[in-house]
Every structure is written in structure tokens, then in C-alpha cells.
What we know:
Order of helices and strands of chain B: HHHEEHHHHHH
Strand order of the largest sheet of chain B: 1-2
CATH class of chain A: Alpha Beta
Oligomer: heterodimer
CATH superfamily of chain A: P-loop containing nucleotide triphosphate hydrolases
CATH topology of chain A: Rossmann fold
Distance between the termini of chain B: 9 Å
Structural class of chain A: alpha/beta
Amino acid sequence: MTAVARLEGVGFVYPDGTRALAGVALELREGERVGIVGQNGSGKSTLVRQLNGLLRPTEGRVTLFGRDTAGVHVAELARTVGLAFQNPDRQIFAASVRSEVAFGARNLGRRGAELDRAVQAALEAVGLEGEAATNPYDLGYSRRKLLALASILAMETPVVVLDEPTTGQDARGVERIQRIVGSLGETGRTVITISHDMRFVAESFQRVIVMRAGRVILDGPPVTVFAAEHAGALASTFLEAPLAARLGERLGLGTTPSESALLDALAAR
Amino acid sequence: MRGWSGPLGMLAIVLAIALAARLGRAMRPYLLATLPLVISILLVNTFLYPGATDRILTLGPVSATWTGLAEALQATARVVAFALSVALLALTTAIDDLLDDLEHRGLGRRTIFVIGSAIRTVPRMIERAGEIVDAQRARGLDTEGSVWRRARGVVPLAGPMVLSALSEVEERTMALEARAFSAPGRRTTLRPLPDRPAERALRWGLFLAAVVLVGLSVSGRFPLP
């Protein structure tokens, strides 16, 4: 798989002197679904903001498709990396769901039929196709969050970054986001998600990156990261493996990070 | 010519307190904030003081005068003394303490809420504005390009600012009600403010001094600026 984004020795210090990242080296590949976890303040949000230039590394460099991002405008990097923020109310301004979703795609230069198709596909992905003409503030919080997600999907960027997409979502909403993450991966797009929801991460991502104090301390598939031997490392950044993994461990079934893995292991016994 | 004693005396007091409280460095941004005003005061007074004839130099149609310069420096001292005394209040007084104390002295709860939320809103607005700018730039809004391109970003940037502020009003109202905001009766405080007799005496002293100064000044016995 080709490298979509590469971080080389990336460090970041905020203007007030707080160090948020130190020596981060990562390669994110095409079609990869990556979950980033870690306690609050461990540098997850700072890390993903390096990808689209909202923050620039104070040490090291970030390349997208082999091209150094230094000196490239954020508006230009947005063609490659779409970032959906945690709080939808920090971006919603349009009078209708449709024009809100179209905003990003329009900024990237899409017009006419191409724009309509991208907007329609994004609305269908989040299940808001029946609300295209609705005022965004007539939707509840969880649906506004899906709207914000749709506005990033409509940009059809090769890299999609989601910051805490599942907060405020009920089981059906989480399932919907899992489906979106899955289908993005299938179409060869790279999905990077920050989350505190270990179950969601274990179920939907092939690769889990664990951060603590601005460093990557674990990086691997869920079956490795959520293995019992790493429980100490996870606990050091105030995380706990998902219930399925802990249950499998207690039952002596090995590492079963997802519910289907746990059920399979149980059935096989 | 008005007096120098007022502004310079005030400056001396403010600076002495600032140094004693080790706030010298923290005062710098407040000082810088007065710069635009100070520059315009200096230029306007020095060059355009009406009726002054003691020229220093002439630049085309306008000339700088000593009278104007002296007037400008005095006005500058006044503005800076005023700004720094406000800075001193902001840097030394915890807003919560001030509001608690005001309430204890019988100021209405609603009035205090209005004062408090006005003060506390500013840092929150700045933070929110930063998040909005980030979110729209991540969607390809050009904030680095030409002026014309940036002008198109006004609605996407101002929109969420206003809309989210409005949508938070109801939530805030309910949160306040849930904490018995409109409950009748006087509230007690868990956190008594330390108020030493010396401080109280000093406050009264300052208040009386202000009254006396204003009185003397109004009656013409001690003309102040």
C-alpha cells in the first residue's frame, strides 16, 4: 500500500511553551483505518491538526503523497485531508442542510452536477437525505454532528480525519458511523479517527495508535494493542481495553478485541 | 497648560504597586494596547494644537509646536495612567472574588450576573472564534489568500459565532435555574474573602481622598487636569 501521509520526527510546542508532540514518526497508508486513542491532553488533536496544516510542526516534517506540507496553505491541504471537528456548532452557518454540506466541496471548486452528486452521496451516507432543505439548527445535536460529518465526506478527500465522531450518538448512530468508516476504507480512502470509545475503535479500525504525553507508545492492530501484555501501557494513559478483550482474557480465550472475535473464540471452544 | 501632578502622580502610584506585586512583565500587553491611541494623541496635538506659535519645525502645511508637544505628553501620561490602573485591577483582582463581594454588599444578583458574564465572555469568545476559524479552514475556506477571497469568509466565520451563542442561551438559562439562580433570599458564601483592617482602612482612605480632591478641584483651590 502506498504511503498517503508520513510524519518524520514531528514535534510540536504551543506558543505558550507547552509541548504537545515529541518525536512522532508515523506512516499512514492508502485505505487504512486508523484509530488514535489516549488520555485527554496526550496530543491526539494536535497530531491530526499537523496533517492539514492547522498546526505546523515545530520540529520534523509532514508529507502528504510525498509532498512536504510546509508552506502550503490550509485551503490547499484541505483537498487532501478533510477534518471533521468534535463540535458541529463551531462550523454550521448555512440556512439549509444542503448548502452546509456543499460548503467544503464548493470551496474545493466543485460545481454543478458534480457538486450535487457529492452532496447527495454524503447526505445518504449519514442518513440526512430527507432533511436537505431543513435548517441545521432544527436538527438535534447528534444529527447536527452527522451533518458536520457529511460536510467533510462531500469533499471526497483521500484522507478523512474524524475527531470524536461517536460522542452523543446512540447505538444506531454509532453503527452508522461504523458503516461510513468501513465504506471509506473500502474505496481506498484513509480514515483517521480520534476516539475515547474503545469498543468503537476495536470494532472499526485495523490499526490503533496509543498516545501518551505527546508520544506514540503503542501502534498496531487491535489484537496486539488490546492484548493483556499491554494493559499496563494502556492504563498509563488512562485507557482500558474494550470489554470483549477483557472478557476473552478472563475466559482464557486469548485476545478478542471485538465482539465477533470473542463470539468466534467462544464458539470454537 | 494643565497640571502634570495628576497623571504623573497616578503613574508613579500604579507603577510602584505593579513593581511591588511583580507585575511589570504582565502589564506590558496593556501598555502596548494604548500605543495606537498614544501615537494619534502625539501626532494630533504636536502638529495641530490650536493657537500655538512656538514652532519646533515645519512640515509642509503643518508645524510642530512646543505647546502642542507638552499638551500631547500630558495627555499621553493621562491615558497611560488610566490604562495601567485598569490593568492593575484586572491583574490583581480575581473576578469571582470581586463579584462575590459585590453581591455580599447588596448588589442585585442579576446585575452581578450581567457584569460577570460580560467579563467572562471575552476569553470564551476568543476561544470559540479560534475553533470556528479552524473548522472552516479545514473545509477549504481560504483565510490566507487575497483580501477579496478572505472577504467571502465573513458569513461562514460570523455565522457559527452568532448561532451557537444564541443556541446556548436556553441551555445556560436552564443551567442557571437548576442551580436556583432566581431563588429568593440572600445567599451565603462558603468562601469568605480575607479583608484585613489595614486594607479596609486604605480603601476608605482612598475614597475620602478622592472626594476631597474632587471637592478642592471643583472649588478651584487645587486645579487638577
